[in-house]
Amino acid sequence: MGYARVDQVDDRGQFAVRGGLLDLYPATEDRAVRVDLFDDEIESLRWFSTFTQRSLGEAESIEVSPAAELAAEYRELAEIAALEDAENRPDIAELLPVGDFRE
């Protein structure tokens, strides 16, 4: 799916496994999620801060898309779109290249 295994998740497209915990930063999310597993069942899903590694609250569900679907030049656009400060966010339409995205 294009995700890179790391010791500690701090960016989109990464995952880490420690015992029954799976930390994952989905390519299309604005924050990382911690999946607590017991055997082959999900015990809990929690958003967490990649800076402090602390829980930010429960996640009802997540959608994990292949990281490879986001070409490198479009990842920056996804990060800009995730900015909470809408007043200082650039107009994404002005940043998009002209042409077919699947090229």
From TrEMBL:
SUPFAM superfamilies: P-loop containing nucleoside triphosphate hydrolases. Signal peptide: none annotated. GO terms for biological process: nucleotide-excision repair. Keywords: ATP-binding, Nucleotide-binding. GO terms for cellular component: excinuclease repair complex. Gene3D superfamilies: 3.40.50.11180, Penicillin-binding protein 1b domain (3.30.2060.10). GO terms for molecular function: ATP binding; ATP hydrolysis activity; DNA binding. Residues 1-69 form the UvrB interaction domain. Pfam families: UvrB_inter. The keyword Repeat does not apply. This is Transcription-repair coupling factor. It comes from uncultured Thermoleophilia bacterium.
